[in-house]
């Protein structure tokens, strides 16, 4: 029943109130206010109904619509750390695209703890999101099992799984390291170290694999490979790993880092030890996150297309929502070398000054 | 009706299926699965029901719950640019707090266009969000009118309105500039310029006001004030404004910028003109966004508590949702000076080298 001012007990404008004021049946109001059925109503009547609805401040009740259609038009995006600059452009690209496609986005910052991630995703599933973008997954991930078991349409972004249970949009991580090593070798470096990422993440694993392969293809794997892995993608973890690397291999002349934050951690350690970049050690990062042109020295790095990754993951997810039989699909975007000031020829080849 | 495996036509596990397998009435199942009513059921029975529900993969239907309670447990956070590093920690602080309080967060990146912002917020309102955090508002904002008219619980964060129609959590922007000017004056600077932000935003407006007041309190407003306003908070707009400032006032020795990105734009212009910071011109930023310790030179800036701002806005909004009569309230957090390498004594006072 419509109460005062045509509102029900929840304070919402009722279709009945609009019908009364428009002088039409409530079913006509319902048809006129729904874009999908508006053509069934005489245009002048539809216009009158819409005007009355506008005047009363009517808002369509998406919750009720969801119950009828079974679609929520909600997408969940699951991030390990919203404050990490790497995820901002992925999120930006994905949410702009989803918005253009008529979806709203729920963003959840779930950290790296598997139990907490599952708890979050269960809650999103309870909200009946139409699909999920997962930027969190490790190489063997219980979240992926959860989504596969429950047949929740899902797409992985940036980080992939070992298996091929879900579609994914990633950068070519192995190629990125190949490009980084090629750049250092072309400058004359031979004793090149790798500052690796976490090995439980595909990005860390594949970039390390790319490094090993690139060194082998250049014949630089005759002696032991110089590698230290960081426990997390953070500046502090990068510094810890860089100390290990430099302590064990004081003669290295270049470092290919698995991530820009790790490279910045190496900057910190070089400053501690009065070493200069690139005069003493050249450093290449990975990602080209914001402001890498402004750090000192400006960081040579491998640029990945974060925003495009976000967009393509959104497109892919919407396709999967529309067609649950779509086969698993892997989109791999090519990275690009950005040369700045953190790489140069090794001191042994530099002209005497 | 329960279909195969106790699922209905939408593929959802039904309460009836759980009731049959647990050997209890469906109303008992409903009570056992709802935390609010579980105590009405014998513990051993509740446990049996929960086990069966778990085994079948039952998910509570929040959409249906929303219709019953009128609460969606959804919060909308409206940002002007999710890729701007300033918003990441606000978002992070707010979403962590909301999550702890049982709310999910819909993040919308709505740009700076007023019409698009209204369209987005209308869509969120149609989803019946319980409340909104607005990080977008200008000093006179149509979004605020929209939320006030429709009585949508809302809190402004970072940027406030001129009026006091909605509660807000901001940094003390005028004080920030006061601290910046005091720091420069204490180093011996007198010809201090202000690189202002957009005047339609409270942050730009109040920081400029703070600058003017600080200069006056130091007796440095005898001649014309040296001010150029950027059209946006971006490095490019900062560079454009810095060129105007330096062309008109080639003798200035220090710049207090309204934002770190504007300060970085000034760095770019100084490099173009072969000027050195701080030897030729000292620069103070505002915000202390990520990596400001890594730029060259490391930026002296005014740190604002972004994450805390996000947390407090979440707490405030939840209070308002619980009590629609709560009076409008303004929380203003104090900023802090972080001295790094971009400020020094003016050349005229430096010892001859």
Q: How widely separated are the two ends of chain A? A: 90 Å
Return the average pLDDT of chain A rounded to an integer: 87
Order of helices and strands of chain A: HHHHEHEHEHEEHEHEHEHEEHEE
Largest interface (C-beta under 8 Å):
A-B, 51 and 51 residues
Question: Considering DSSP H and I runs of 4 or more, what fraction of the residues of chain A is helical?
Answer: 40-55%
Compute the number of helices of chain A.
Answer: 12
Q: What structural category do the secondary elements of chain A indicate?
A: alpha/beta
Plain-language structure description:
- 2 copies of one chain form a homodimer.
- Chain A is of the alpha/beta class.
- Chain A has helices at residues 15-22, 26-33, 43-56, 62-69, 87-100, 114-126, 142-149, 173-186, 202-217, 235-248, 260-272, 306-322, and strands at residues 74-79, 104-109, 131-134, 154-157, 167-171, 192-196, 226-229, 254-257, 282-287, 300-303, 330-333, 336-338.
- In chain A, the strands form 2 sheets. Chain A has a 6-stranded parallel beta sheet with strand order 2-1-3-4-5-11, with helices on both faces.
- The longest helix of chain A has 17 residues, at 306-322.
- Chain A is elongated, with a radius of gyration of 27 Å.
- The relative contact order of chain A is 0.11.
- The mean pLDDT of chain A is 87.
- The interface between A and B is large, with 51 and 51 residues.
